[in-house]
Structures are given as C-alpha cells and as structure tokens.
Amino acid sequence: MDFNKNYFEIFQLPVAFDQDPDQLAARYRQLQSSVHPDRFVDASDQEKRLSLQWATQINAAYNVLVSGLDKAIYLLELAGISIEDNPQLDPGFLMDQIELREQLEDISATAAGRLVDPHDDSEALHELDAFKEKIKIELHDLEKDFAVQYGTELRAAEITVYKMQFINKLLLEADKLEEKMLDY
Amino acid sequence: MALLQITEPGQAADPHQRKRAAGIDLGTTNSLIASVREGMIQTLADQDGEHLLPSVVRYTDNGPVVGRLAVESAKQDPLNTIVSVKRMMGRGIDDLKRLSGQLPYDFSASEGGMVKIRTRVGDISPVEASAEILKSLVNRSTEKLAGELHGVVITVPSYFDDAQRQATRDAARLAGLNVLRLLNEPTAAAVAYGLDTGAEGIVAVYDLGGGTFDISLLKLNQGIFEVVATGGDSALGGDDFDRRIAEWIIDQSGYDKDVNPRQLRTLMMQARDIKETLSTCDRSGISIDVDDLKFNGTLSRSVFEEMIADLINQSIKACRRTMRDAGIDEVKSIVLVGGSTRVPAVRSAVAEFFGREPLGDIDPDRVVAIGAAVQADILVGNKPDDEMLLLDVLPLSLGLETVGSLVEKVIDRNTTIPVSKAQEFTTFKDGQTAMLIHVVQGERELVNDCRSLARFELHDIPQMVAGAARIEVLFQVDADGLLSVSARETTTGVSASVEVKPSYGLSDAEVTSMLKASFDHAQEDIASRSLSEAKVEARRMIDALLGALELDGEKLLAPGQMVLLNQAIDKLQETLSLENIEQIKEGVEILGKASEEFASLRMDAAVREVLAGRRIDQLEEDIG
User: Fold this and answer.
1) Environment class of residue B463 by beta-carbon count within 10 Å: exposed (0-12), middle (13-18) or buried (19+)?
2) ipTM of the complex
3) Largest CA distance in chain A
4) DSSP secondary structure string for all residues of B366-389
C-alpha cells in the first residue's frame, strides 16, 4: 500500500476543506468493504497484515476528513505549515475567550447548587445548551473563513485554526460540564 | 508436469464447498451455539433437545461436568461448581470483591494477577472453566453439523475491556477453536434482526444479560452495520435482580447470621424462578427451608418492581449517556437481548425512554447466537455476494500512566477499529536504557480508577543524554478490539524490546501449561498436536494462495513471478509429507516472504477496483 498518498488522495477527493459528508461517508464504506479484515479471515498472513494496515489507515483518514479542526490542521500540514504551540492572537479575540469562559463558569456554579437533586437542573441545562449553540455557530463561522482563506492566504488560514482550537477546547469543557450535570 | 493433488478423504479441497462455521454466545447464565445449516440459521440442541446450555461447570474427581447436570449439583457442591464465570473473566481478586460482594468461592491469584478458584481438582482459572463450556457446545455442533468446525465467531459484551476480550480468546484457544472474530453481542443481535427487516437508520440494542448490561447504537446503511456508540455497565445484570430478591427473602425471614454457600445458592435459584414467574404473574409464592433459614410467603410484582427500580434506572442512565455520546436523539428501532428483558418493568422503562415499543419477534435468549452464526457464515466465505460489513468501535479509552498517577488518553473510546496511534516518549536520566510504561483502559482521570491492562518494559534503549532519545510506542487495536504494542527508538531506528505483562490476563506460559495439562489428561501427544497444527496452518496458507492465484495471478503477476510463487507453494506442499515441524515452519516462512508482494498487489487492485466502480456510480448519479 502506498502510505505516501494523502488522505484526500486515498478517498479520491479534491484537497479542500469543504467536502460533501454523504459522499465522504459513502466512499469510506466502499473502501472499508474492500479492505476490512473481515474480508480476509481465511487469507494468508501477509494479506491479513496488509488488510489491517489499510483498514487502520482508512479509519485514520476518515476521522480527519470528518472533523473540522483536524481536517484544517491536516490541510495546513499538506501546505507545509506546522501548528505552533503558543501562537500570538489578537487581544480582542482573547478577551472574548475569557468572557466565554466566565460564562461557562457561571453556568457551572448555578448547577453546582442543585446537584443534590439531579432532576432539578433543567434551568442550568438550558443555559448550557444555549451556550453550546452559540459557540458552535462561532466554530462554524471560523470553518467557513478557513475554507476561503486556505486557497488564498495561508497565514490567515493558520490564525483561524488557532482560533478554532480555542473554541474547540471550550466546547469540550462544556461537554464535560454537561456530563457532570447529568450525573453520569 | 504438475502433479495432481488428491486430498485425504473427509478434508475439504473444493474451494466452493461450504465451510462449517458457527456462532457462539458465551453467556453469563446460559450459552448457545448456532449455525447455518442448509440455508437455515438454527441454534443447536443437545441430545435432550435443549438449546440453552447453563454456563455452569462442576469439577468432579472424574473430570468436569458442564450444563444442567452441574446446575443440579450446585446446591450440594457449591465450592466446586462454577457459575457466572463470565463475570470473573479478565478480572483480579480486588475487582471481584468490589463487584459482587458474596461469591461463594475460595479465590486465589494466579501469576498473571488473574483470579483463580480453588476446587477439589486444583486452582481453576475462569479461562479454563469457559473453555469447558465452549468444548461442550462445540461437541454438540460436530454431531449436528457432521463435520469439523472451520471456525467460530464468539460474542462478548461491547463493554468488555481488553483483558476480558483477551481472556475470552484464550478460552477459545484452550478449547482448540479457530476464532474468526470476537463480535459484540448487541451487534450480533442487530445482525439477526437486520436479516429479517432490512431496516435502515439507528437501532438501539438494549442487552440486559445475566451479569452485564450493554446499550449499543448501530447505524444500518447499505448493508453495513456501523456501531456508532456503545455504553453500559459490566457489573449490572439479571443476576442483580435475583440477588435483590434473595436479600429480600433473608430480610423477611429474620435470619441474622451470615448465609453459607449452600443457602446462598438455594436462595439465588429460588430467586430466579420467582423473577421468571413475576414476568407473567402478579405474585409468586416462596417456600424456602435450608440450614435454619426458613421462609414461607409471597412476593408481589409491584414490590419486586420497587426493589429493582434503581437497577433499571441505572441502565436507562447508561442509555441516555450513550445517546448523547453519539449525538442522537431518536432511534428507529429497539432490539431487546437477554432473558431479563422479559421483565415487564424493564420493557416499559425502555419503551418510555426511547418513545417506542421494542422489537420482540426473535427469542431474546437466542438472538445473539443467531447473529453470530450469520456473521461466521459470511466470514468463512459462504456468502461471497453478501455485502454486509461490521464496523466496530473501541468501547473504552486507552491511556497511559503519567506523572502523578494521572491518565493520558492515547485512543478515545468510540473510535472506529482497527485503529493505531503512536505516542512518543523520552528518557528522564542520562544513559537511561529502560523504561516502564503502564497501559490502562477507562474514562477516569486517575490510574487507580481505570483498569490496568499491561505494563510494558522497554529495554535496549541506546544510551543518550536525558531527553535525547525518542521512543515511539505504537498502539494497534485490531478488528477484535484487542490491543498490541510495539516500540522503537526513532533517532537511531533501534527497536526496543517490549515485554508484556498483562495485569489480569494469563501469561503465555500459563496458557501453554494449561494446554499441556489438558493434553496430559487426554493422553495426547503434544508434539503430534503441534505438528498437526503446523500442517493445518500450512494447508490454510496454500489454499488461500492457490485461490488468490487462480483469481488474480495472471492479471497481476509476470509469468516469471508466477513460476517462482508456484515453486514456493510446491516446496511447502512437499514438506507436508515429511512429518517434520521445523521444515514445515520454514516452508511457511519462505512462502510468506515470496507471496508478500503478490498480497500487496492484490490489496491495491481491490482498492482501485472499488474506487473505479465508485466513479461509474458517481457518473450515473451526476447524469441522473
């Protein structure tokens, strides 16, 4: 197998951020149904090993291609840009981030008082839902920016990815809080 | 001139001949085997016409007894009669104490940390007891199917961690079975139903077995079953319902001493009967009299439902969490698995939570074995035109212990398998040549709250200053959900050796000695057994290659390559008659190397083909 092929090439798709999710899913299934270890149960050990490698690679590719942030980082890598650990971002954006974080903490504090009765946290849950909806829209807007910038101004695309990382992390924290509130 | 090949009588040579394959549901309470016979999927019965084999093994001086006979003796001989062995698979003693409180056994720890049960014939591991159950099922099948089993699909709860899956595989190995795949029980159930309905959309599989609860969300589309998310509780099951009833009886009887194993066993068996009665009746009579523990009375369904409400709620909570994990808020259908789903309170709680009535036309006790049999039949190639493909996910996150006993996740749960991930480490001290890596599985942040899977010692790291060595550890999870680990030093390319110490598994040495013990018992010669295994392996390889050459040889290989490959095949074929295991193994290795490129070309061609086919579909779509 040619491990040098990039994920888009494996899926025979154009190297671009915007992809049709249905097409992506359909192609994923086609590829897996030809290489998956289930198809090689009685094959030689060589074929079994190759099948495992292929199926693993296709899963890895698919996971990147369906995720907004991972796909964006991968596209930058293909363009020769590796992500920095501590990027410089404009103060305005950072201020917004601090504010968003404070909002999340407020929701958390509201919920904390009610954890005694797990059925009575619906108000905090609603607030959390609204919060998540808001940052999801922001993330979606950043993805749209990235899709345009990737073809034209790579430096701007890179900055957008850093912003996406921030929002993504916030979203994960919101998920964690939700988990806690639902008493999992 | 090519020699004509004549096979031994009774051994399949015709590649188009059906291979015997079976599905096995290795359950906590009962086990089952099913197979496709003359186009029909059937669970196989024993001589008395019974399909369910109680998963109970009794060790006697005349060898192990499995099934109903063992159940009958359970009251008289509780310490030598192993029930619910599945709950002990891949577990350590501490887990078991935490899990179920009162188990009427004397435990001891084995060298690998796995629990063993003291019986009159010696310490028995759960793997050995499970192997007895498997053997008993397979004996049934060889009679019914008139032929050797080519391979089996064994089902496991989707929530089983790596240690529990490994233990299941070890049990099959000990029983002498070729495991085609470990299949998640809920997936098997969906496969069984998928055949009948051909439904597309999200299916929830609610599986309340004897000792484990699983909830799985599967996406069915274009003949592909994709597990979107799995969740559950590996320490919740119908046995807990029985235990609640037993506790209630003890409470009502006023008995205030510790119950002995005999009493506990009697109570649990009565409790199970009562539970079953309450599924169809409003009340059940109770009459118990064992070693001073006496009680006569009745239990009503409503009281029973009250005492299990929190258990049912626990399962519904797991459903909610799994739905959220998958980002799904509506399911198209619900499949019920496991005898305890006959409890009306369970059915109504499930119907209420999902907002629709669950499916029920396949026996919830058999649905898993039936699905496994379907998968087994497809895997051995009996249905070459069937497009079904199961895509599964890792049930629990894999992580590593880092400083401060914290867990760093390496592969997240619900990642589609097979999957691999590389993680880089570096040395802490100058000249350090070894390091210890601790692999754990679970979602919690502290190592002690997760399951310890294995400790890896990396040796032979080239001596360098601290922080200069780059050790890449590669985690590979295969299609069975089993983990393997390899490591290498990336700056020098030196492979560091990896020593695996499964935390709750059996070491290879232990499996070997168990195999040895079982052969001693059967008066079999180990050497001849290994030789015949090597021959089977060589024949399998030859058959696979001949089949592949017939299909793609001319298309993909130059005439010279064809000749070379055929020569290597003939060489291996010749060694088969020499009765020399070393020569056979050498032949397998040579042929393996010789066929490597062909294998790679075939795989590439397969991928090209599918994408080429896709392009035509795409054109049609564009035109249409």
Assistant:
1) exposed
2) 0.84
3) 61
4) THHHHHHHHHHHHHTTS-TT---E
pLDDT at A20 over 60: yes
| pTM of structure | 0.78
Question: Chain A: nearest CA to B181, how far in angstroms?
Answer: 8
For residue B610, the model assigns a pLDDT of: 72
A182/B324 Cβ within 8 A: yes
Tell which of B603, B617, B619, B621 to mutate to test the A interface (max A CBs under 10 Å): B603
Closest CA to B28 of B153, B105, B126: B126
Alpha carbons A28 and B558: distance in angstroms, whole number = 32
Averaged pLDDT in 10-residue chunks for chain B of 624 residues: 40 56 92 88 89 94 91 83 88 69 68 78 91 93 72 89 91 91 89 64 88 84 71 84 94 87 87 92 91 91 95 94 85 90 94 92 91 92 77 85 85 88 84 85 86 81 82 87 81 64 61 59 59 80 86 86 88 85 86 86 80 53 42
Strands (E) in B222-276, as ranges, are 224-233
Please answer whether residues B595 and B557 qualify as being in contact, where contact means their C-beta atoms are separated by less than 8 angstroms.
no
Residues in chain A: 184
How far apart, in whole angstroms, are the C-alpha atoms of residue B249 and residue B295?
Answer: 7
Closest CB to A55: pick one of B151, B418, B541: B418
Q: Among this protein's residues, is B185 annotated catalytic? A: yes
Report the C-alpha gap between B221 and B509 in whole angstroms. Answer: 44
Measured between alpha carbons, how far is residue B2 from residues B538, B547, B565, B566, B574 in Å?
19, 17, 14, 10, 13
pLDDT of the residue at B12: 42
CA distances (Å), origin A143, targets A20, A77, B487: 14, 17, 37
Letter string b/e over residues B290-322, b meaning 16 or more CB atoms within 10 A of that residue's CB: beebebeeebebeebbeebeebbeebbbbbebb
Interfacial A residues in 3-22 facing B (CB < 8 Å): 12
Question: Which of the 8 DSSP states describes residue B415?
Answer: P
Q: Which two tokens stand for residue A103?
A: 């909002």
Question: In order of start, what are the domains of chain B with their CATH numbers?
Answer: 15-198+362-384 (3.30.420.40), 238-306 (3.90.640.10), 398-507 (2.60.34.10), 519-616 (1.20.1270.10)
Q: Nearest Cα to B245, choosing from B283, B272, B217?
A: B272
Give the residue, A181 or A132, on which the prediction is more confident: A132
SS3 B392: strand
Of B381, B387, B603, which is closest to A47 when you measure between CB atoms? B603
CB contact under 8 A, A44 and B476: no
Q: Which pLDDT does position B8 carry in this prediction?
A: 43
Q: CB atoms < 10 A from the CB of B145, how many?
A: 18
The span from the first CA to the last CA of chain B, in angstroms, equals 54
Q: Side chain identity at A61, as an amino acid letter?
A: A
Q: Are B20 and B149 in contact (CB under 8 A)?
A: yes
User: Min CA distance, A92 vs chain B (Å)?
Assistant: 32
- Tell me: pLDDT of A1 over 80: no
Catalytic residue, chosen from B128, B185, B214, B365, is B185
Beta-bridge partner residues of B495: B488
In this predicted model, what pLDDT tens digit does every residue of A100-131 receive, in sequence order?
Answer: 999 998 888 877 765 544 455 567 778 888 99
Q: Is B207 a catalytic residue?
A: yes
Give B391's contacts (C-beta < 8 A, 6+ positions apart).
Answer: A32, A36, B224, B225, B226, B227, B416
Spell out which residues of chain A touch residue B607, defining contact as CB-CB under 8 Å.
1, 31, 34-35, 54
In angstroms and rounded to an integer, the radius of gyration of the C-alpha atoms of chain A is 21
Q: Quick one: pLDDT at residue B615?
A: 47
Q: Measured between CB atoms, which of B379, B415, B543 is closest to A38?
A: B379
- Domain architecture of chain A: domains with CATH: 7-66 (1.10.287.110), 91-181 (1.20.1280.20)
